[in-house]
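Chapter review. Work through the record for Ribonuclease Z before attempting the end-of-chapter questions.
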Amino acid sequence: MQLEFLGTSSGSPSAFRNVSGAAVKFEKSKKWVLVDCGEGTQHQILKSKLSLYQLSLICISHIHGDHCYGLPGLLASMAMSGRKEAVHIVAPKKVIEFLHATFSLTDLALPFDLKTSAIEALNCASLNFDFCKIEVITLKHRVPSFGFKVSETLIPNKLKTSLLKQHGIATGPHFNQLQKGFDVEYQGKVLASNTYAFPSWQPRSVIVCGDNEKPSLLKGHIDGVDALVHEATYTHKDLKKVGHHTGHSDAKRIAEFANQTHVPLLVLTHFSARYHGPGLLDNLEEEAHTYYQGELVLASDGLVVDIPKVLLSESLE
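Structure tokens for Ribonuclease Z:
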């Protein structure tokens, strides 16, 4: 499982950073998830090894343009590439309306099914796809904003060979079926796959947030998460200087939360343009390190972050 950052700026792009976009990739599927799609995201994808043909799910956190203005062009390019497979979009209702209005006014017809789900109608329910699971998390910003907990589901099984031997079950084609997750009949009795097979590794999950001034809203979702991607638009000092309600977090606020909840990997992104350029993020990074003791990453455009596996071992129980 990997995170790839396509845009790490807040508000508007600069010569150093594009606006928001992040990809979540999976080990056992070519399909991938895009979280937010600011203007120019498709150009960032062209610089990566990501394939638009395999982009299967797009999640948009909120209606601000730096998180969604890239959608019409991205979908138009997917249409021109000859894509036929359906594309799923989970987004605020107004973003979906924006898309359909753009299609109508610019005479764009998609050759694939665009399956849209308005976040407001989901009531923060989980969505299951054939390659991952998505959980929607309500955040706090100047407009309704959301985060997405993305969990992998395609994990190959291993067989409990010691248990099979202990139960006198000889090798044969039924081993392959058990490993694939199917119950099988053997010598007049049914062998349950969940008894004789187990996942090769612990399912990994990441939370990728939209804009959010209240990290504590993640408390009910953070347990067991392998990585948290969260905005740190300002340092604490600079946020106070701004002097008006921004709806954003500072490095101190999110670092304290991540430390209190024992997040193993914190990735900060969505940096104000005042920090763009060599050495300008040093104060923000120092602030985050002061309040967070885990692994800290400050995202940059094009950065790929590996989410390591926790391998599971055989149990006879």
